[in-house]
Write a structure and sequence with these properties.
alpha/beta; TIM Barrel; 8-stranded parallel beta barrel
Amino acid sequence: MIIKVCGLREPDNIRQVAAIQGIDLLGLIFYARSPRYVNSEKTAAEVAALNNKKIVGVFVNETLDEVVSKCADYHLDYIQLHGNETPEYLALLHKRIPATTKIIKAFSIRDAEDLKITKEYDRLCAYYLFDTATSGYGGSGQSFEWSILQSYKGLTPFLLSGGIGPDLVRSLLDFQHQMLAGLDLNSRFELLPGLKNIPLLSEFVQKIKFTGL
């Protein structure tokens, strides 16, 4: 089970999160309208120095040039696209980033109909990310009805996102899908936007990955 912690911003907090056993991916948001927006040379230096976690850069309808630039500056292992990026955009992006850098495409889920478009992105993504449909782009702290995902029959594994919090351990352990690859954690593990609660994260990850309830 992959654990991704998204919305990191502060260098010291990033270092603390990276030290938690069981966390695999660290997410940095490069969307200027987000309260977790990253635009710091100190943060770039901090993530570049990490060698025990993979770094994910999150973008929303960004230009290819900017994504490629951030990919180099922050040594991104994954690029997560959280806007209305087309399959054609992803194909062009693949040509301009290192072969080792993978793409995650996020989809907002209201009902089973929202899953149909994922077919257009097959073979372009390492993972999909299924998030709660809202008026914005993620970070809402709201969950969607996970049973909708039983309609997903695609071949691309997915990360589950949207309002995942400490109170959902039992439900997450019970949720089964053959293409479920991991969880995306953000706002419900924060003290403030961009500042994660380390003890809360540690306890949650321990239960999910190692001990159960």
